[in-house]
Design brief:
This protein is mainly α. The two termini are 19 Å apart. 68% of the residues lie in helices and 0% in strands.
């Protein structure tokens, strides 16, 4: 089977360290444990619907921190692409779904580079929630592997892609509703510097990303 595609994973100033209230941090951390039980979200939700849902947690201040807001916006773009892929597959249009999936893989690869070099690295360096961060990084690798194994001639392509998109949606929930709010209230100045440097270095990484050539070949 010829692989359909491969992800090829491998300024608003951030705030000074906020005073961490243990009760607040515990509530935010609990989100990482609760999110897997959220099974009623439609896979066809638009970006507006996702943003309305996340407005419930806007008090955490995540979108007031530019690097976090950028990552969350990239999440919404990925969700939009996922919904588009599902619609094309439902309509039996595998070729168009493949093209959109290639775009999703390219954007996800760029997003992961920024995320792992920035917010994830900062949290691991600080020593907070390192196990949770490494679990999320393992999921990034799983997405890479799952996408690389997809083939246009796969008789179970629709089911496999839908499973992949379900997993990606859950993964985004864990980050938007869990690890990002925890980072906002726990990272110190050194950690935010790591995040800002990573975002600056990777702001135009897509122009040199080897995945670009792979995506172009799938058009």
């Amino acid at each position: 089977m010829v692989p359909l595609l491969h992800m090829n994973f491998l300024r608003r100033r951030a705030p000074a360290q906020a005073a961490v209230r243990p009760q607040r941090l515990a509530v935010l951390w609990r989100a990482l444990q609760i999110v897997p039980a959220m099974q009623d979200f439609s896979p066809y939700w638009s970006r507006r619907q996702w943003m309305n849902m996340e407005n419930m947690c806007e008090h955490c201040g995540c979108r007031g921190v530019e690097p976090i807001a950028e990552l969350m916006d990239e999440h919404y773009e990925l969700l939009d692409l996922g919904a588009e892929i599902r619609r094309h597959l439902d309509a039996g249009n595998r070729a168009t779904a493949r093209t959109v999936l290639a775009r999703l893989a390219h954007q996800l690869g760029h997003h992961v580079k920024r995320e792992e070099a920035g917010i994830f690295r900062a949290m691991k360096d600080q020593g907070d929630f390192a196990d949770a961060v490494m679990a999320l990084e393992a999921e990034h690798a799983d997405f890479d592997e799952a996408i690389s194994e997809l083939g246009l001639d796969d008789t179970e392509l629709e089911a496999r892609v839908n499973d992949l998109l379900d997993d990606l949606t859950l993964h985004i929930d864990k980050e938007n509703l869990g690890i990002f709010p925890v980072a906002v209230v726990s990272l110190g100045a050194s950690g935010w510097n790591t995040v800002e440097v990573a975002h600056e270095r990777n702001s135009h990484a897509h122009a040199h990303d080897p995945a670009r050539a792979i995506v172009a070949g799938l058009g």
